[in-house]
Protein backbone atom coordinates (compact mmCIF):
# COMPACT_ATOMS: atom_id res chain seq x y z
CA UNK A 1 0.00 0.00 0.00
CA UNK A 2 1.36 3.39 -0.88
CA UNK A 3 0.60 6.94 -1.84
CA UNK A 4 0.91 7.43 -5.60
CA UNK A 5 1.10 10.76 -7.41
CA UNK A 6 2.03 12.32 -10.71
CA UNK A 7 2.31 15.46 -12.82
CA UNK A 8 2.10 15.48 -16.62
CA UNK A 9 3.11 18.83 -18.09
CA UNK A 10 3.44 20.35 -21.57
CA UNK A 11 6.67 22.16 -20.67
CA UNK A 12 8.15 21.02 -17.33
CA UNK A 13 6.83 20.03 -13.93
CA UNK A 14 6.02 22.65 -11.33
CA UNK A 15 8.57 22.13 -8.55
CA UNK A 16 6.43 23.56 -5.75
CA UNK A 17 3.37 21.53 -6.69
CA UNK A 18 5.37 18.35 -7.11
CA UNK A 19 6.98 18.78 -3.71
CA UNK A 20 3.53 19.19 -2.18
CA UNK A 21 2.31 15.94 -3.76
CA UNK A 22 5.45 14.15 -2.62
CA UNK A 23 5.07 15.38 0.95
CA UNK A 24 1.44 14.30 1.19
CA UNK A 25 2.20 10.86 -0.26
CA UNK A 26 4.42 10.16 2.74
CA UNK A 27 1.33 10.09 4.95
CA UNK A 28 0.80 6.58 3.58
CA UNK A 29 4.28 5.27 4.36
CA UNK A 30 7.98 6.06 4.05
CA UNK A 31 9.49 2.58 3.97
CA UNK A 32 10.51 2.77 0.31
CA UNK A 33 9.92 4.95 -2.73
CA UNK A 34 10.07 5.12 -6.50
CA UNK A 35 9.90 7.59 -9.39
CA UNK A 36 9.21 7.45 -13.12
CA UNK A 37 10.23 10.49 -15.18
CA UNK A 38 10.82 11.44 -18.80
CA UNK A 39 14.20 12.95 -19.62
CA UNK A 40 16.34 13.08 -22.79
CA UNK A 41 13.74 11.06 -24.72
CA UNK A 42 14.02 8.19 -22.21
CA UNK A 43 11.75 7.11 -19.38
CA UNK A 44 13.87 6.71 -16.28
CA UNK A 45 13.09 4.93 -13.05
CA UNK A 46 14.63 5.46 -9.64
CA UNK A 47 13.85 3.12 -6.75
CA UNK A 48 15.08 3.26 -3.18
CA UNK A 49 14.45 1.72 0.22
CA UNK A 50 14.25 5.14 1.84
CA UNK A 51 11.79 8.05 1.79
CA UNK A 52 10.54 9.74 -1.36
CA UNK A 53 11.78 13.24 -0.44
CA UNK A 54 15.34 11.98 -0.29
CA UNK A 55 14.94 10.15 -3.59
CA UNK A 56 13.49 13.24 -5.27
CA UNK A 57 16.53 15.30 -4.21
CA UNK A 58 18.85 12.61 -5.53
CA UNK A 59 17.20 12.26 -8.93
CA UNK A 60 17.07 16.03 -9.69
CA UNK A 61 14.27 15.79 -12.22
CA UNK A 62 12.56 19.16 -12.13
CA UNK A 63 13.28 19.81 -15.81
CA UNK A 64 11.22 16.76 -16.76
CA UNK A 65 7.79 17.00 -18.38
CA UNK A 66 6.47 13.93 -16.64
CA UNK A 67 7.05 12.75 -13.07
CA UNK A 68 5.15 9.89 -11.43
CA UNK A 69 5.96 8.37 -8.08
CA UNK A 70 5.02 6.57 -4.92
CA UNK A 71 5.83 6.53 -1.23
CA UNK A 72 5.32 3.05 0.07
CA UNK A 73 4.17 1.32 3.20
CA UNK A 74 5.84 -2.09 2.97
CA UNK A 75 3.27 -4.87 2.53
CA UNK A 76 3.29 -8.42 1.16
CA UNK A 77 7.07 -8.74 1.24
CA UNK A 78 10.13 -6.50 1.10
CA UNK A 79 12.13 -8.17 -1.66
CA UNK A 80 11.00 -5.98 -4.59
CA UNK A 81 10.08 -2.34 -4.92
CA UNK A 82 7.93 -0.27 -7.24
CA UNK A 83 7.68 0.89 -9.98
CA UNK A 84 7.39 -2.68 -11.24
CA UNK A 85 8.89 -3.18 -14.70
CA UNK A 86 8.47 -5.94 -17.30
CA UNK A 87 9.13 -5.80 -21.03
CA UNK A 88 9.34 -2.00 -21.08
CA UNK A 89 6.01 -1.65 -19.26
CA UNK A 90 5.91 -0.20 -15.74
CA UNK A 91 3.34 0.41 -13.03
CA UNK A 92 2.95 2.05 -9.67
CA UNK A 93 0.19 0.48 -7.64
CA UNK A 94 -1.56 1.37 -4.41
CA UNK A 95 -3.20 -1.63 -2.76
CA UNK A 96 -2.69 -5.36 -2.35
CA UNK A 97 -3.77 -7.94 -4.91
CA UNK A 98 -5.04 -10.83 -2.80
CA UNK A 99 -5.55 -13.40 -5.56
CA UNK A 100 -2.20 -13.07 -7.31
CA UNK A 101 -1.48 -16.83 -7.20
CA UNK A 102 -4.71 -17.61 -9.02
CA UNK A 103 -3.94 -15.00 -11.69
CA UNK A 104 -0.44 -16.33 -12.36
CA UNK A 105 -1.94 -19.74 -13.11
CA UNK A 106 -4.01 -18.12 -15.87
CA UNK A 107 -1.10 -16.29 -17.51
CA UNK A 108 1.40 -17.66 -20.01
CA UNK A 109 4.18 -15.26 -19.01
CA UNK A 110 6.41 -16.31 -16.11
CA UNK A 111 6.71 -14.58 -12.77
CA UNK A 112 9.98 -12.74 -12.09
CA UNK A 113 9.51 -11.00 -8.74
CA UNK A 114 7.91 -11.51 -5.34
CA UNK A 115 5.86 -8.32 -5.24
CA UNK A 116 2.11 -8.78 -5.82
CA UNK A 117 1.93 -5.71 -8.08
CA UNK A 118 3.93 -7.53 -10.78
CA UNK A 119 0.77 -9.29 -11.87
CA UNK A 120 -0.64 -5.97 -13.17
CA UNK A 121 2.31 -5.54 -15.53
CA UNK A 122 2.25 -9.23 -16.49
CA UNK A 123 -1.43 -9.00 -17.49
CA UNK A 124 -0.56 -5.92 -19.55
CA UNK A 125 2.39 -7.64 -21.20
CA UNK A 126 0.32 -10.65 -22.25
CA UNK A 127 -2.61 -8.46 -23.35
CA UNK A 128 -0.39 -6.37 -25.66
CA UNK A 129 1.52 -9.37 -27.01
CA UNK A 130 -1.88 -10.68 -28.15
CA UNK A 131 -2.44 -7.37 -29.98
CA UNK A 132 -5.47 -6.37 -27.93
CA UNK A 133 -6.44 -2.71 -27.61
CA UNK A 134 -4.70 -0.52 -25.03
CA UNK A 135 -8.06 0.97 -24.09
CA UNK A 136 -9.26 -2.48 -22.96
CA UNK A 137 -6.40 -2.96 -20.50
CA UNK A 138 -7.88 -1.32 -17.36
CA UNK A 139 -11.06 -3.41 -17.50
CA UNK A 140 -8.99 -6.52 -18.18
CA UNK A 141 -6.80 -5.92 -15.12
CA UNK A 142 -9.69 -5.03 -12.83
CA UNK A 143 -11.70 -8.04 -13.94
CA UNK A 144 -8.88 -10.40 -12.91
CA UNK A 145 -7.55 -8.74 -9.75
CA UNK A 146 -9.15 -8.82 -6.31
CA UNK A 147 -8.16 -6.43 -3.58
CA UNK A 148 -7.49 -2.71 -3.93
CA UNK A 149 -6.13 -1.70 -7.32
CA UNK A 150 -5.34 1.99 -7.79
CA UNK A 151 -2.76 2.17 -10.53
CA UNK A 152 -0.74 4.32 -12.91
CA UNK A 153 0.39 2.14 -15.82
CA UNK A 154 3.02 3.53 -18.20
CA UNK A 155 3.34 2.19 -21.76
CA UNK A 156 6.31 4.10 -23.24
CA UNK A 157 6.24 2.37 -26.66
CA UNK A 158 2.57 3.28 -27.06
CA UNK A 159 2.87 6.78 -25.62
CA UNK A 160 0.11 6.11 -23.11
CA UNK A 161 -0.42 6.55 -19.37
CA UNK A 162 -3.38 4.64 -17.96
CA UNK A 163 -4.98 5.63 -14.65
CA UNK A 164 -7.57 3.28 -13.15
CA UNK A 165 -8.95 2.14 -9.82
CA UNK A 166 -11.55 -0.26 -8.45
CA UNK A 167 -12.11 1.50 -5.12
CA UNK A 168 -11.64 5.20 -5.83
CA UNK A 169 -8.28 5.69 -4.10
CA UNK A 170 -7.15 7.77 -7.07
CA UNK A 171 -8.00 11.37 -7.99
CA UNK A 172 -7.20 13.55 -11.01
CA UNK A 173 -7.16 17.33 -11.29
CA UNK A 174 -5.91 20.09 -13.60
CA UNK A 175 -3.95 23.33 -13.45
CA UNK A 176 -3.90 24.94 -16.86
CA UNK A 177 -2.70 22.31 -19.33
CA UNK A 178 -1.02 20.25 -16.62
CA UNK A 179 -2.58 17.04 -15.30
CA UNK A 180 -2.10 15.94 -11.71
CA UNK A 181 -3.11 12.76 -9.89
CA UNK A 182 -2.84 11.52 -6.31
CA UNK A 183 -4.20 8.84 -3.98
CA UNK A 184 -6.35 11.37 -2.16
CA UNK A 185 -8.36 14.41 -3.18
CA UNK A 186 -6.85 16.50 -0.40
CA UNK A 187 -3.41 16.42 -2.05
CA UNK A 188 -4.85 17.98 -5.23
CA UNK A 189 -6.98 20.50 -3.36
CA UNK A 190 -3.83 21.67 -1.56
CA UNK A 191 -2.21 22.74 -4.83
CA UNK A 192 -5.51 24.26 -6.03
CA UNK A 193 -6.31 21.88 -8.86
CA UNK A 194 -9.62 22.38 -10.63
CA UNK A 195 -12.11 19.81 -11.96
CA UNK A 196 -10.87 17.29 -9.40
CA UNK A 197 -12.62 13.97 -9.80
CA UNK A 198 -12.31 10.42 -8.58
CA UNK A 199 -11.06 7.67 -10.88
CA UNK A 200 -13.28 4.69 -10.17
CA UNK A 201 -15.88 3.57 -12.67
CA UNK A 202 -14.03 4.85 -15.76
CA UNK A 203 -10.30 4.83 -16.46
CA UNK A 204 -8.34 7.78 -17.82
CA UNK A 205 -5.92 7.34 -20.73
CA UNK A 206 -3.41 10.17 -21.19
CA UNK A 207 -1.11 10.74 -24.18
CA UNK A 208 2.55 10.95 -23.21
CA UNK A 209 5.73 11.05 -25.36
CA UNK A 210 6.57 7.76 -27.05
CA UNK A 211 9.93 6.18 -26.30
CA UNK A 212 11.34 3.16 -28.09
CA UNK A 213 14.40 2.92 -25.86
CA UNK A 214 14.35 0.61 -22.88
CA UNK A 215 13.51 2.03 -19.47
CA UNK A 216 16.59 3.19 -17.60
CA UNK A 217 16.46 1.83 -14.04
CA UNK A 218 18.52 2.62 -10.94
CA UNK A 219 18.07 0.95 -7.55
CA UNK A 220 19.50 1.99 -4.22
CA UNK A 221 19.34 -0.11 -1.06
CA UNK A 222 20.76 1.13 2.20
CA UNK A 223 18.38 -0.38 4.77
CA UNK A 224 19.91 -2.92 7.13
CA UNK A 225 16.74 -3.94 8.93
CA UNK A 226 14.11 -6.28 7.54
CA UNK A 227 10.69 -4.73 8.04
CA UNK A 228 8.95 -7.95 7.01
CA UNK A 229 11.10 -10.87 8.18
CA UNK A 230 10.52 -14.14 6.37
CA UNK A 231 8.85 -16.71 8.58
CA UNK A 232 10.79 -19.93 9.02
CA UNK A 233 9.28 -22.65 11.16
CA UNK A 234 11.52 -23.90 13.96
CA UNK A 235 10.18 -26.93 15.79
CA UNK A 236 12.59 -26.50 18.75
CA UNK A 237 11.40 -22.92 19.23
CA UNK A 238 7.78 -23.94 19.10
CA UNK A 239 8.43 -26.52 21.84
CA UNK A 240 9.52 -23.69 24.15
CA UNK A 241 5.94 -22.40 24.24
CA UNK A 242 4.23 -23.85 27.27
CA UNK A 243 0.57 -24.71 27.41
CA UNK A 244 -1.58 -26.43 30.01
CA UNK A 245 -5.28 -26.93 29.52
CA UNK A 246 -7.68 -25.34 32.00
CA UNK A 247 -8.20 -28.83 33.43
CA UNK A 248 -4.48 -29.20 34.14
CA UNK A 249 -4.21 -25.74 35.68
CA UNK A 250 -7.31 -26.45 37.79
CA UNK A 251 -8.17 -22.87 38.67
CA UNK A 252 -11.35 -22.10 40.52
CA UNK A 253 -13.75 -20.54 38.01
CA UNK A 254 -17.05 -18.77 38.26
CA UNK A 255 -19.93 -21.23 38.06
CA UNK A 256 -21.86 -18.95 35.70
CA UNK A 257 -19.12 -17.54 33.44
CA UNK A 258 -15.57 -18.91 33.05
CA UNK A 259 -13.50 -16.22 34.80
CA UNK A 260 -10.86 -17.76 37.09
CA UNK A 261 -9.72 -16.85 40.57
CA UNK A 262 -6.65 -15.06 39.12
CA UNK A 263 -8.86 -12.37 37.56
CA UNK A 264 -8.03 -9.10 39.38
CA UNK A 265 -10.55 -8.12 42.07
CA UNK A 266 -12.73 -11.17 41.48
CA UNK A 267 -14.97 -12.41 44.30
CA UNK A 268 -17.29 -15.42 44.45
CA UNK A 269 -20.57 -15.73 46.34
CA UNK A 270 -21.72 -18.87 48.17
CA UNK A 271 -22.88 -20.38 44.89
CA UNK A 272 -19.58 -19.68 43.16
CA UNK A 273 -20.90 -16.83 40.98
CA UNK A 274 -18.42 -13.98 40.53
CA UNK A 275 -18.93 -10.27 41.11
CA UNK A 276 -18.32 -9.59 37.40
CA UNK A 277 -21.48 -11.56 36.65
CA UNK A 278 -23.46 -9.89 39.44
CA UNK A 279 -22.54 -6.42 38.21
CA UNK A 280 -22.84 -7.11 34.50
CA UNK A 281 -25.28 -5.00 32.50
CA UNK A 282 -26.19 -6.31 29.10
CA UNK A 283 -24.37 -4.38 26.41
CA UNK A 284 -25.54 -6.15 23.28
CA UNK A 285 -28.97 -4.52 23.35
CA UNK A 286 -29.27 -2.53 20.13
CA UNK A 287 -31.48 0.51 19.88
CA UNK A 288 -33.96 0.69 16.98
CA UNK A 289 -32.11 1.01 13.67
CA UNK A 290 -34.52 3.76 12.69
CA UNK A 291 -32.87 6.00 15.27
CA UNK A 292 -29.50 5.73 13.52
CA UNK A 293 -31.10 6.35 10.11
CA UNK A 294 -32.50 9.61 11.51
CA UNK A 295 -29.19 10.55 13.13
CA UNK A 296 -27.16 10.14 9.93
CA UNK A 297 -29.72 11.75 7.63
CA UNK A 298 -28.26 15.30 8.00
CA UNK A 299 -24.83 13.97 6.99
CA UNK A 300 -25.93 12.30 3.74
CA UNK A 301 -24.58 13.96 0.60
CA UNK A 302 -26.03 13.94 -2.92
CA UNK A 303 -24.86 11.75 -5.78
CA UNK A 304 -21.57 9.94 -5.37
CA UNK A 305 -20.17 12.37 -2.80
CA UNK A 306 -18.67 10.59 0.22
CA UNK A 307 -20.56 11.18 3.47
CA UNK A 308 -18.90 9.27 6.33
CA UNK A 309 -15.55 8.03 7.61
CA UNK A 310 -15.19 4.46 8.85
CA UNK A 311 -12.17 3.79 11.10
CA UNK A 312 -10.96 0.52 9.63
CA UNK A 313 -8.46 -1.97 11.04
CA UNK A 314 -9.29 -4.90 8.79
CA UNK A 315 -10.42 -6.89 11.85
CA UNK A 316 -13.69 -8.74 11.88
CA UNK A 317 -15.69 -6.04 13.68
CA UNK A 318 -14.66 -3.09 11.52
CA UNK A 319 -15.10 -5.22 8.37
CA UNK A 320 -18.60 -6.31 9.31
CA UNK A 321 -19.36 -2.75 10.39
CA UNK A 322 -18.36 -1.56 6.91
CA UNK A 323 -20.65 -4.19 5.40
CA UNK A 324 -23.59 -2.87 7.44
CA UNK A 325 -22.78 0.77 6.66
CA UNK A 326 -22.74 0.15 2.91
CA UNK A 327 -25.41 -2.52 2.53
CA UNK A 328 -27.88 -1.66 5.29
CA UNK A 329 -27.34 1.99 6.17
CA UNK A 330 -26.63 2.80 2.49
CA UNK A 331 -23.98 5.37 3.27
CA UNK A 332 -21.04 6.23 0.99
CA UNK A 333 -18.00 5.80 3.23
CA UNK A 334 -14.29 6.34 3.00
CA UNK A 335 -12.34 4.01 5.28
CA UNK A 336 -9.42 5.18 7.37
CA UNK A 337 -6.58 2.92 8.55
CA UNK A 338 -3.76 3.75 10.94
CA UNK A 339 -0.79 1.43 10.45
CA UNK A 340 1.62 1.63 13.37
CA UNK A 341 3.87 -1.26 12.42
CA UNK A 342 2.00 -4.07 14.16
CA UNK A 343 -0.62 -4.65 11.48
CA UNK A 344 0.22 -8.00 9.90
CA UNK A 345 0.06 -8.79 6.20
CA UNK A 346 -3.09 -10.80 6.97
CA UNK A 347 -4.75 -7.67 8.35
CA UNK A 348 -3.64 -5.60 5.39
CA UNK A 349 -4.90 -8.16 2.90
CA UNK A 350 -8.32 -8.14 4.54
CA UNK A 351 -8.38 -4.34 4.33
CA UNK A 352 -7.58 -4.58 0.63
CA UNK A 353 -10.04 -7.41 0.03
CA UNK A 354 -12.98 -5.62 1.64
CA UNK A 355 -12.30 -2.19 0.12
CA UNK A 356 -11.67 -3.66 -3.32
CA UNK A 357 -14.79 -5.81 -3.31
CA UNK A 358 -17.00 -3.03 -1.97
CA UNK A 359 -15.48 -0.26 -4.07
CA UNK A 360 -14.65 1.81 -0.98
CA UNK A 361 -11.78 4.29 -0.83
CA UNK A 362 -9.18 3.60 1.85
CA UNK A 363 -7.09 6.39 3.34
CA UNK A 364 -4.01 5.12 5.15
CA UNK A 365 -1.98 7.00 7.69
CA UNK A 366 1.25 5.14 8.34
CA UNK A 367 3.59 5.80 11.22
CA UNK A 368 7.36 5.67 10.89
CA UNK A 369 7.36 1.87 11.11
CA UNK A 370 11.03 1.57 12.03
CA UNK A 371 10.73 4.11 14.84
CA UNK A 372 7.51 2.65 16.22
CA UNK A 373 9.09 -0.79 16.42
CA UNK A 374 12.15 0.62 18.14
CA UNK A 375 9.79 2.16 20.71
CA UNK A 376 8.10 -1.19 21.31
CA UNK A 377 11.45 -2.93 21.62
CA UNK A 378 12.66 -0.46 24.25
CA UNK A 379 9.51 -1.01 26.30
CA UNK A 380 9.62 -4.78 25.90
CA UNK A 381 13.24 -4.84 27.05
CA UNK A 382 12.24 -2.78 30.10
CA UNK A 383 9.30 -5.11 30.76
CA UNK A 384 11.48 -8.23 30.57
CA UNK A 385 13.77 -6.83 33.27
CA UNK A 386 10.82 -6.51 35.64
CA UNK A 387 7.80 -8.45 34.28
CA UNK A 388 4.51 -6.94 35.43
CA UNK A 389 1.16 -7.93 33.95
CA UNK A 390 -0.20 -4.45 34.56
CA UNK A 391 2.48 -3.00 32.27
CA UNK A 392 1.64 -5.08 29.20
CA UNK A 393 -0.33 -2.13 27.82
CA UNK A 394 2.95 -0.25 27.30
CA UNK A 395 3.65 -2.61 24.42
CA UNK A 396 0.52 -1.51 22.54
CA UNK A 397 0.55 2.18 23.46
CA UNK A 398 1.84 3.17 20.01
CA UNK A 399 -1.47 2.43 18.29
CA UNK A 400 -3.42 5.08 20.23
CA UNK A 401 -2.57 7.74 17.64
CA UNK A 402 -5.35 6.04 15.67
CA UNK A 403 -7.72 8.43 17.45
CA UNK A 404 -5.61 11.48 16.66
CA UNK A 405 -5.63 10.92 12.93
CA UNK A 406 -9.39 10.46 12.74
CA UNK A 407 -9.61 14.19 13.37
CA UNK A 408 -6.97 14.88 10.70
CA UNK A 409 -8.86 12.82 8.13
CA UNK A 410 -12.07 14.70 8.97
CA UNK A 411 -10.30 17.97 8.16
CA UNK A 412 -8.74 16.64 4.97
CA UNK A 413 -11.94 15.14 3.57
CA UNK A 414 -14.42 17.67 4.88
CA UNK A 415 -16.46 14.76 6.26
CA UNK A 416 -17.59 15.08 9.87
CA UNK A 417 -19.49 11.87 10.50
CA UNK A 418 -17.50 8.83 11.58
CA UNK A 419 -19.08 5.44 12.19
CA UNK A 420 -17.28 2.88 14.35
CA UNK A 421 -17.59 -0.90 14.30
CA UNK A 422 -16.51 -1.61 17.88
CA UNK A 423 -17.49 -4.93 19.46
CA UNK A 424 -19.54 -4.09 22.59
CA UNK A 425 -18.38 -7.29 24.33
CA UNK A 426 -14.66 -6.52 24.22
CA UNK A 427 -14.24 -5.52 27.84
CA UNK A 428 -10.85 -6.36 29.32
CA UNK A 429 -10.93 -5.00 32.87
CA UNK A 430 -8.00 -7.22 33.82
CA UNK A 431 -5.45 -5.23 31.79
CA UNK A 432 -5.70 -2.28 34.18
CA UNK A 433 -6.77 -4.56 37.02
CA UNK A 434 -3.27 -6.00 37.16
CA UNK A 435 -2.10 -2.44 37.86
CA UNK A 436 -4.35 -2.36 40.91
CA UNK A 437 -7.24 -0.43 39.36
CA UNK A 438 -10.69 -1.69 40.29
CA UNK A 439 -13.15 -2.37 37.45
CA UNK A 440 -15.72 0.26 36.69
CA UNK A 441 -18.82 -1.84 36.29
CA UNK A 442 -20.86 1.22 35.43
CA UNK A 443 -18.99 2.00 32.19
CA UNK A 444 -21.06 1.15 29.11
CA UNK A 445 -18.55 1.95 26.37
CA UNK A 446 -15.42 0.10 25.33
CA UNK A 447 -13.36 3.31 25.23
CA UNK A 448 -13.77 5.64 28.17
CA UNK A 449 -12.81 9.17 29.15
CA UNK A 450 -12.46 10.74 32.56
CA UNK A 451 -9.70 12.88 34.00
CA UNK A 452 -9.69 11.24 37.42
CA UNK A 453 -9.68 7.76 35.96
CA UNK A 454 -6.72 8.64 33.77
CA UNK A 455 -4.79 10.29 36.59
CA UNK A 456 -5.31 7.19 38.74
CA UNK A 457 -4.10 5.00 35.91
CA UNK A 458 -0.99 7.08 35.23
CA UNK A 459 -0.13 7.22 38.92
CA UNK A 460 -0.26 3.44 39.23
CA UNK A 461 1.70 2.98 36.04
CA UNK A 462 4.37 5.48 37.06
CA UNK A 463 5.04 3.51 40.24
CA UNK A 464 5.41 0.33 38.19
CA UNK A 465 7.74 2.08 35.75
CA UNK A 466 10.08 2.96 38.61
CA UNK A 467 10.73 -0.76 39.05
CA UNK A 468 12.33 -0.81 35.59
CA UNK A 469 13.81 2.61 34.63
CA UNK A 470 14.16 1.45 31.03
CA UNK A 471 10.56 2.60 30.52
CA UNK A 472 11.78 6.19 30.75
CA UNK A 473 13.03 6.22 27.17
CA UNK A 474 12.52 8.26 24.02
CA UNK A 475 9.19 6.53 23.28
CA UNK A 476 7.48 8.03 26.33
CA UNK A 477 6.22 11.14 24.55
CA UNK A 478 4.74 9.01 21.76
CA UNK A 479 2.95 6.91 24.40
CA UNK A 480 1.60 9.85 26.39
CA UNK A 481 0.47 11.88 23.38
CA UNK A 482 -1.33 8.88 21.89
CA UNK A 483 -3.14 8.25 25.15
CA UNK A 484 -4.14 11.91 25.33
CA UNK A 485 -5.86 11.71 21.94
CA UNK A 486 -7.61 8.51 22.92
CA UNK A 487 -8.82 9.49 26.39
CA UNK A 488 -9.06 13.28 26.59
CA UNK A 489 -9.74 14.63 23.13
CA UNK A 490 -13.41 15.44 22.65
CA UNK A 491 -15.07 13.27 20.01
CA UNK A 492 -17.93 14.64 17.95
CA UNK A 493 -20.17 13.43 15.13
CA UNK A 494 -19.59 9.74 15.77
CA UNK A 495 -21.79 6.73 16.36
CA UNK A 496 -21.23 3.04 17.03
CA UNK A 497 -22.85 0.68 14.53
CA UNK A 498 -23.28 -2.06 17.13
CA UNK A 499 -25.38 0.26 19.25
CA UNK A 500 -28.02 -0.37 16.58
CA UNK A 501 -27.21 -3.82 15.20
CA UNK A 502 -26.83 -6.92 17.35
CA UNK A 503 -23.30 -8.30 17.44
CA UNK A 504 -23.63 -11.98 16.52
CA UNK A 505 -20.38 -13.88 16.02
CA UNK A 506 -21.64 -16.61 13.71
CA UNK A 507 -23.52 -14.19 11.47
CA UNK A 508 -20.51 -11.90 11.33
CA UNK A 509 -18.01 -14.67 10.50
CA UNK A 510 -20.27 -16.29 7.91
CA UNK A 511 -20.93 -12.99 6.16
CA UNK A 512 -17.27 -12.01 5.94
CA UNK A 513 -15.95 -15.41 4.91
CA UNK A 514 -18.72 -16.41 2.52
CA UNK A 515 -19.44 -13.05 0.88
CA UNK A 516 -15.98 -11.47 0.87
CA UNK A 517 -13.52 -14.40 1.16
CA UNK A 518 -12.26 -12.72 4.31
CA UNK A 519 -9.01 -14.41 5.28
CA UNK A 520 -8.55 -16.26 8.58
CA UNK A 521 -5.31 -17.07 10.39
CA UNK A 522 -3.52 -20.40 10.03
CA UNK A 523 -2.28 -20.51 13.63
CA UNK A 524 -5.56 -20.11 15.55
CA UNK A 525 -9.24 -20.99 15.27
CA UNK A 526 -10.46 -17.59 16.45
CA UNK A 527 -11.23 -14.71 14.08
CA UNK A 528 -10.55 -12.09 16.76
CA UNK A 529 -7.43 -9.90 16.57
CA UNK A 530 -5.85 -12.09 13.92
CA UNK A 531 -4.47 -9.09 12.03
CA UNK A 532 -2.85 -7.71 15.19
CA UNK A 533 0.83 -8.60 15.46
CA UNK A 534 0.89 -8.07 19.23
CA UNK A 535 -2.03 -10.29 20.30
CA UNK A 536 -0.26 -13.64 20.19
CA UNK A 537 2.51 -12.47 22.48
CA UNK A 538 0.53 -10.65 25.14
CA UNK A 539 -2.08 -13.40 25.35
CA UNK A 540 0.71 -15.95 25.77
CA UNK A 541 2.04 -13.92 28.69
CA UNK A 542 -1.37 -13.61 30.34
CA UNK A 543 -2.15 -17.30 29.98
CA UNK A 544 1.28 -18.48 31.13
CA UNK A 545 1.26 -16.31 34.24
CA UNK A 546 -2.44 -15.96 35.11
CA UNK A 547 -4.08 -18.93 33.41
CA UNK A 548 -6.47 -16.90 31.25
CA UNK A 549 -6.50 -14.41 28.38
CA UNK A 550 -8.80 -11.86 26.83
CA UNK A 551 -10.58 -14.79 25.18
CA UNK A 552 -11.84 -15.87 28.63
CA UNK A 553 -13.24 -12.41 29.35
CA UNK A 554 -14.85 -12.17 25.92
CA UNK A 555 -16.45 -15.61 26.13
CA UNK A 556 -17.66 -14.81 29.64
CA UNK A 557 -19.44 -11.75 28.29
CA UNK A 558 -21.07 -13.91 25.62
CA UNK A 559 -22.32 -16.26 28.35
CA UNK A 560 -23.85 -13.34 30.23
CA UNK A 561 -25.48 -12.12 27.01
CA UNK A 562 -27.04 -15.53 26.45
CA UNK A 563 -25.01 -16.16 23.28
CA UNK A 564 -22.98 -19.10 24.62
CA UNK A 565 -23.29 -21.88 27.15
CA UNK A 566 -20.59 -22.17 29.77
CA UNK A 567 -19.61 -25.59 28.42
CA UNK A 568 -19.17 -24.24 24.89
CA UNK A 569 -17.15 -21.29 26.17
CA UNK A 570 -14.73 -23.61 27.99
CA UNK A 571 -14.39 -25.69 24.84
CA UNK A 572 -13.60 -22.60 22.75
CA UNK A 573 -10.99 -21.06 25.06
CA UNK A 574 -9.26 -24.43 25.41
CA UNK A 575 -8.37 -24.01 21.73
CA UNK A 576 -8.11 -20.21 21.50
CA UNK A 577 -5.66 -19.92 24.40
CA UNK A 578 -3.11 -22.22 22.81
CA UNK A 579 0.14 -20.41 21.89
CA UNK A 580 0.24 -18.84 18.44
CA UNK A 581 3.80 -19.67 17.49
CA UNK A 582 3.73 -18.02 14.07
CA UNK A 583 2.25 -14.77 15.38
CA UNK A 584 4.64 -14.63 18.34
CA UNK A 585 7.61 -15.37 16.12
CA UNK A 586 6.61 -12.62 13.67
CA UNK A 587 6.23 -10.15 16.55
CA UNK A 588 9.64 -10.85 18.05
CA UNK A 589 11.35 -10.96 14.65
CA UNK A 590 9.99 -7.54 13.68
CA UNK A 591 11.38 -6.15 16.93
CA UNK A 592 14.75 -7.84 16.49
CA UNK A 593 14.31 -9.83 19.70
CA UNK A 594 15.65 -13.33 20.33
CA UNK A 595 12.71 -15.74 20.51
CA UNK A 596 14.32 -18.25 22.87
CA UNK A 597 15.60 -15.58 25.26
CA UNK A 598 12.25 -13.79 25.51
CA UNK A 599 10.11 -16.91 25.90
CA UNK A 600 12.37 -18.37 28.58
CA UNK A 601 11.97 -15.18 30.64
CA UNK A 602 8.18 -15.31 30.22
CA UNK A 603 8.11 -18.97 31.21
CA UNK A 604 10.11 -18.25 34.36
CA UNK A 605 7.70 -15.60 35.70
CA UNK A 606 6.10 -16.84 38.95
CA UNK A 607 2.56 -18.05 38.33
CA UNK A 608 -0.46 -16.49 40.03
CA UNK A 609 -1.82 -19.95 40.77
CA UNK A 610 -0.57 -23.24 42.20
CA UNK A 611 0.65 -25.59 39.49
CA UNK A 612 -0.37 -29.21 39.72
From TrEMBL:
Database matches in Pfam families: GATase_6
First-tier enzyme category under EC: transferase
Domain of life: Bacteria
Enzyme Commission number(s) from the entry: 2.6.1.16
Parts forming coiled coils: none
Glutamine amidotransferase type-2 domain mapped to chain residues: 2-210
Keywords: Glutamine amidotransferase, Transferase
Statement: the UniProt record of this protein carries the keyword Calcium: no
Protein name from the UniProt record: glutamine--fructose-6-phosphate transaminase (isomerizing)
Gene source species: Malaciobacter halophilus
